[in-house]
Amino acid sequence: MKEFNVVLAGVGGQGTLLAAEAIGVAAVKDDLNVRVSEIHGMAQRGGAVVSTVRIGETALASTVLEGRADVILGFEPFETLRNLKYASEKTLVIMNTEKIPPTELAAKNLKYPDIEELVKKVHLFTSHVLLVEAPRLAKEAGSSLARNVVMLGALAGTEVLPVKTESLKGAIKELVPQRHVEVNIRAFELGCATVREQKQKA
Asked: From residue 19, how far is each of 109, 119, 121 by CA, in Å?
């Protein structure tokens, strides 16, 4: 495999960086060449966070070029929209529907757009869009903090990622504290299942 590019976009405190690291660790487990980078807007809680993961023989640098993302994993809808420069008509966008209004919207007294409006804008770039209710599934798994792992499960459920699902689970087990492993694996499975259901209905 020459190259597979994932862009993860969210805000500080959502676990975006851990998710990127998990994909990187899983790729190493599968003996794949991988590069992981993180680009912080404002790294504090609530600031924009973008991570990129590149897997494959030609992935020599860690940055993804505009229009070259195979997947955009959007942890927050507005941040997903902001990173559509990485999308093409072939890109799969997996978006958490939970809104975390960016500070500049409040500062400028602007209203956060409706999810339907944001989804329409994503559809201008690509028709491949999956929506995930990560907070609900994380809560169902036993911890609202496991939203990022729900999103990783959703990504695994699409079966487009060139790493094995078992390797991704193994990476999660290594990266999260031991006492949270069970909840996180449950969150992963729920994310995976919700996307498989969507695929069957499509």
From this structure: 32, 23, 25
